[in-house]
Design a protein that fits this description.
Residues 1-29 form the signal peptide. Keywords: Signal. The protein has helices spanning 3-24, 145-148, 151-155; strands at 53-59, 62-68, 74-81, 84-87, 97-99, 111-115, 119-125, 131-137. It is of the alpha+beta class. The chain has one domain (1-156).
């Protein structure tokens, strides 16, 4: 292989990788990379519930979802990538976060507070004032970066 051929193939590979990562940002377009753990982060409230504030952050291919109370109190946060969900040690209810491999039946009072192509997050108030948060990855088989925008799943 000549030096020119190597250069052209390398250039195409870099372009393809850049395009894949560029398209992967579509799902988290505009998601900030800082502010996790703040009561009122400079981020859009994406909550599906009128009872909570939910903020999404993205950095290095990992999505972070933070659940706040209406008064701004940080209740909990999770991280998700590659079909894996982790509870983060953030918020007053960090000890009450459950991660599931799949969605399961919910109990009375449970609300879906956030859902995207990677994860569903639900919140259930407990009688003692705690907030039980459950995060379940959505394990789909999407392979089109224009459709799913999640490069992590596409690499699998």
């Amino acid at each position: 292989m000549s030096k020119g051929d190597f250069y052209m193939k390398s250039k195409r590979a870099v372009l393809a990788i850049s395009l894949a990562f560029g398209l992967s940002g579509a799902a988290w377009a505009g998601a900030p990379s800082t502010g996790l753990g703040q009561a009122w982060p400079n981020a859009t409230d994406v909550s599906l519930s009128p009872h909570y504030h939910v903020y999404v952050f993205a950095k290095d291919g990992i999505e972070y979802v933070q659940v706040n109370g209406l008064n701004g109190t940080v209740r909990s946060a999770i991280a998700t990538a590659n079909g894996t969900v982790l509870a983060l040690p953030i918020g007053t209810d960090a000890a009450h976060v459950t991660t599931m491999k799949t969605n399961t039946a919910t109990s009375a009072g449970t609300e879906t507070v956030y859902q995207d192509q990677a994860v569903t997050v639900t919140a259930t108030p407990a009688s003692n004032g705690a907030l039980n948060v459950t995060a379940s990855p959505l394990l789909d088989t999407c392979t089109d970066p224009g459709e799913c925008g999640d490069v992590v799943k596409q690499i699998q």
